[in-house]
Automatic annotation (TrEMBL):
It comes from Zingiber officinale (Ginger). InterPro entries: F-box_dom (IPR001810), SCF_F-box_component (IPR050796). It comes from the Eukaryota. This is F-box domain-containing protein. Residues 9-49 form the F-box domain.
Length: 355
């Protein structure tokens, strides 16, 4: 029966085989590779790999949320990952012992080793690439993949430093994987007490600055910063920017008495009208399940329109689908709390995994 199926598949023109396989997620293609040599030959062909890379389509079936490290500091640590499409947990071996993940994009992460030193890794292909040290008093804002190649850029920001009683100007640096060097870039328009996460939209990095509260944009071509908006909606805590369907959104917790979060809201920013509008908020019954004995802090992770809200104190996780606006609670992770260290990043495997 299997050989008959193989023969039917092999009788199809190669371009038709590729057209069919191009519609499938990488996780399914990995299974197909193991079924027959015919599938393996087509999937590994340069023409198919090139076409799949150019499509750059990402499937929810491939989405992986890396939420915890099991055995941090161990010689062979693993990540505890959540698969939203299956609502299930898996263990993912890590290629190197790491203590922190700074940022992620697609299949890549920028992380730090326990013994010091930063690197970029495709955790699924298990590649590790050391990067040159940043300048002192800096931290990483974002990792940006080059869609036309395997190159990437890393954007970092200098910390606020007082020198001789004077607050130094804040600026950013950009690391280019092609040159393997950090280069000084644009100066920030103001001093900010802190910066939030950075997201990429239409060639611009958008970042929230706090105190003063500004929506900032960094042009990756000119490497200059600008203030997009000087007003944020209400008084929000635990803010997080995200992009969905080329639209810009802000997640935040509504500040109640004594810094207690009383509601979690999602706002959308109109880039033309330059104003925020309410998109939705977490339903009361879901919020009560999420906050436990009181909510003072939460983390947000998103990718491909799936948003995870994580109460790291109670280890409870709420999932939100931006397309359907459906809220649901993720099943509990059975790993004991004492063995879990929070990392909180999303991955989507690359075509490199098929080679």
């Amino acid at each position: 029966m299997a050989s008959s199926s193989d023969s039917d598949w092999e009788r199809l023109p190669l371009n038709l085989q590729e057209s069919i396989l191009l519609l499938l997620p990488i996780s399914t293609l990995l299974v197909c590779k193991s079924l027959s040599r015919s599938f393996l030959h087509t999937i590994r062909s340069p023409s198919f790999l090139s076409a799949y890379s150019l499509r750059r389509s990402r499937h929810l079936d491939d989405l992986i949320f890396l939420l915890f490290i099991d055995g941090i500091g161990a010689r062979r640590p693993s990540a505890i990952a959540f698969l939203p499409i299956r609502a299930s947990w898996i263990h993912l071996p890590l290629p190197i012992s790491l203590c922190h993940i700074h940022t992620s994009s697609g299949c890549l992460v920028v992380a730090e080793k326990f013994e010091g030193g930063q690197f970029v890794s495709d955790l699924l292909c298990r590649t590790v690439t050391p990067i040159a040290p940043m300048s002192f008093h800096s931290y990483i804002l974002s990792l940006v993949e080059d869609e036309a190649s395997t190159d990437f850029k890393i954007v970092s920001s200098s910390k606020n430093v007082i020198d001789g009683g004077i607050l130094r100007p804040s600026y950013c640096q950009v690391y280019n994987s092609a040159s393997r060097r950090w280069e000084s870039s644009g100066q920030f328009p103001h001093h900010y007490a802190m910066l939030g996460n950075a997201i990429l939209l239409n060639g611009m990095l958008f970042v929230l600055g706090r105190d003063p509260d500004h929506l900032l944009a960094f042009d990756l071509k000119t490497r200059m910063w600008s203030v997009v908006d000087e007003e944020l909606p209400l008084s929000l805590l635990c803010f997080h920017l995200l992009v969905f369907e080329e639209r810009l959104f802000l997640v935040g917790g509504l500040d109640g008495e004594e810094l207690t979060i009383t509601r979690i809201e999602i706002w959308e920013y109109d880039l033309v009208e330059k104003q925020w509008g309410m998109f939705c908020f977490m339903p009361d019954e879901i919020f009560l399940q999420f906050c436990g004995n009181g909510l003072f802090n939460f983390d947000t992770i998103d990718q491909l329109g799936i948003v995870l809200f994580c109460n790291t104190r109670e280890f409870s996780i709420i999932m939100f689908d931006m397309s359907s606006k459906i809220w649901s609670r993720a099943p509990d992770c059975e790993q004991p709390k004492s063995r879990k260290s929070w990392i909180g990043h999303a991955l989507v495997p690359s075509v490199q995994l098929l080679k």
